[in-house]
Write a structure and sequence with these properties.
The protein is an alpha/beta fold. Helix content is 45%, strand content 21%. The longest helix has 23 residues. The chain is globular and about 45 Å long.
Length: 238
């Protein structure tokens, strides 16, 4: 594992704990909170709808969300599934998720995505929304997902990316310089607002991510870009 990867992952955990798991701030560096203000809400809705069409019926399926944050994705998919489970490494995030998931059968577990506390071939569907890129070791995370998926089951990973071409150049300037500056002015804290750009920059480009998915054991892997590549969905079938 590269030293920089460990540092960035540790910075992400520190940010989530320091903010108390807030994902409702327009400048929050929780992936979902930021993305919701930039169209992520629509992406989540579209992804959930797509999953419900392709993985139908969901009744009786064992669902796991990795890096659930405050539970935005999980609560959308949980209806009709069998004992849905969501994990996150941030205790503060899980506290907020528990409030959001009151009255449901959702199980919120504080756990490491690199060492999932579940038996082999246990889940029918695994999702991750704006949380996978926070892992310190992407290959280990993918191998764990494959391990706990049953044969023929599907995984969907929704996360940020970097657009290409001229748009990408403008996007990187905004993402790396303008957004952190605004966040620092509003919050009075400098360091945490550089975490999100750093985490997106280290995330593999689509071609590499697909190769990693195949190397981890997915027999099928695909990527669908949204908003010119600012975000995209990776799908893998075991």
């Amino acid at each position: 594992m590269k030293y920089l990867d460990r540092v960035i992952a540790q910075s992400g955990r520190a940010w989530f704990e320091q903010t108390g798991g807030r994902d409702d701030n327009p400048l929050s560096l929780n992936g979902y909170g930021y993305a919701a203000k930039a169209g992520g809400e629509a992406l989540l809705t579209a992804l959930v709808g797509d999953i419900r069409r392709k993985v139908s019926p969901l009744d009786g399926l064992r669902l796991l969300e990795v890096g659930c944050g405050a539970g935005a994705m999980t609560t959308r998919l949980a209806a009709g599934t069998r004992r849905p489970v969501a994990i996150d490494f941030s205790h503060a995030m899980l506290q907020r998720a528990g409030v959001k998931g009151r009255g449901t059968s959702l199980a919120w577990i504080e756990a490491d995505a690199l060492r999932l506390p579940f038996p082999d071939a246990h889940f029918d569907l695994i999702t991750a929304a704006f949380g996978f890129r926070n892992l310190a070791d992407y290959d280990a995370g993918l191998r764990e997902i494959v391990r706990v998926l049953r044969p023929g089951a599907e995984c969907g990973i929704l996360d940020f990316g970097e657009p290409r071409g001229l748009l990408g150049k403008f996007y990187r300037v905004y993402f790396k310089h303008v957004l952190p500056a605004i966040g620092t002015v509003i919050s009075g804290v400098q360091g945490p607002y550089r975490y999100l750009p750093a985490s997106v920059e280290r995330f593999p480009p689509p071609e590499e991510m697909l190769e990693r998915m195949r190397g981890a054991g997915f027999r099928e892997a695909s990527w669908t870009p949204y908003t010119f590549g600012v975000a995209g969905v990776y799908r893998g079938i075991k």
